[in-house]
Design the sequence.
């Protein structure tokens, strides 16, 4: 498995599952054409492109190129790289019949093909945790618990308030929020946002007895 600095955009959860077996990276799903109507996620992708870089890895069929071209047109060009899988005809194991064009998607590609596609696109391979720019350390679930973002009756409301403060999509799961924060912010920046949230009278507050 290789660590990649850029966030990677794929179409669906099966693509994400396949890719997560071979790369350690933030992987974002478009959920197919749903990305066309999801302004929050498009804003998140634009922010990732500016701060971390994005690699678009969609299927090689017409739908995949439609999604790719849509994103290419609305994202900052200097923050986006294009990764392509080859045209291979066949059927993924989970499907009863091939897709409309009969081509395998990202989920059906062998692991090395996916790695090669990312490397050809210019993915930045990281050697270890210290290679990740100036990051002091990763933001962890222990930080979330300490700051009342998990483990409290009002944790969901506190996470929502933090996401609104940082202009992040409101429907992120706890794990997805952790991934996105680590992709966009260093630990001191997270600490600052959490402290501002704690001092905001309008935000949900931690109880004194936990």
Sequence:
């Amino acid at each position: 498995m290789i660590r990649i600095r850029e966030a990677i955009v794929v179409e669906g959860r099966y693509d994400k599952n396949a890719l997560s077996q071979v790369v350690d990276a933030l992987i974002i799903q478009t959920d197919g054409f749903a990305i066309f109507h999801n302004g929050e996620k498009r804003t998140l992708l634009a922010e990732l492109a500016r701060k971390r870089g994005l690699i678009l890895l969609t299927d090689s069929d017409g739908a995949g190129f439609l999604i790719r071209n849509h994103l290419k047109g609305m994202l900052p060009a200097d923050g986006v790289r294009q990764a392509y899988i080859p045209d291979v005809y066949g059927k993924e194991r989970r499907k009863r019949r091939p897709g409309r064009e009969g081509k395998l998607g990202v989920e059906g590609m062998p692991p090395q093909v996916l790695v090669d596609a990312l490397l050809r696109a210019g993915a930045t391979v990281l050697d270890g945790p210290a290679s990740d720019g100036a990051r002091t350390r990763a933001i962890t679930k222990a930080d979330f618990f300490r700051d009342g973002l998990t483990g409290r009756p009002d944790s969901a409301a506190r996470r929502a308030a933090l996401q609104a403060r940082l202009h992040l999509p409101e429907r992120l799961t706890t794990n997805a929020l952790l991934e996105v924060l680590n992709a966009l912010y260093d630990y001191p920046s997270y600490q600052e946002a959490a402290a501002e949230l704690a001092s905001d009278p309008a935000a949900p507050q931690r109880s004194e007895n936990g």
The mean pLDDT is 88. Helices lie at 13-20, 39-51, 62-74, 111-120, 141-146, 155-165, 174-184, 187-199.
